Amino acid sequence: MNQKTLDERIRHHLAASDPAVHITEQELAMSRERSLRAPRTTETNSSDEYFATGSPAHSSTVVSLSAKRQRRRRKWVTSVAAAAVLAGLVTGDIVGLAGWRGGATAEAADVLDTAAETAITSTDPVVNPGQYLRIRSTNVWSTEDWPEDGSKYQWLDTEKMDMYIPADRTSEWVWLRSGRVPTTFFDDKAPNYVQEQGIQAHPETLRAPKGEFYGQPGGPLTTDMSTFPRDPYRLLNHIYIRTLGAGQSVDGEALVFIADLLRTGLVPADLRAALYKAAAMIPGVTIMEGQANLDGRPGVAIGRTEGTLMRQEIIIDPKTGQLIGERQVLTQDYGVMPAGTPISWTAVETSVSDTAP
Amino acid sequence: MSFQTVREDRADLEREKRFLIAHAAAHDRIYRYLRRRAENAATAEDLCAEVFRIAWEKSTDSESLSVMVLFGVARNVLRNHDRSSVRAAKLIGELRPPEQHGDAEACSQEYPLREALHRLSPEDREVLLLTYWDGFSSREISDLLNTSATAIRMRLHRARKALAHLIQTEGAEQ
Question: Taking the CA atoms of chain A, what radius of gyration do you get in angstroms?
Answer without folding.
Answer: 25
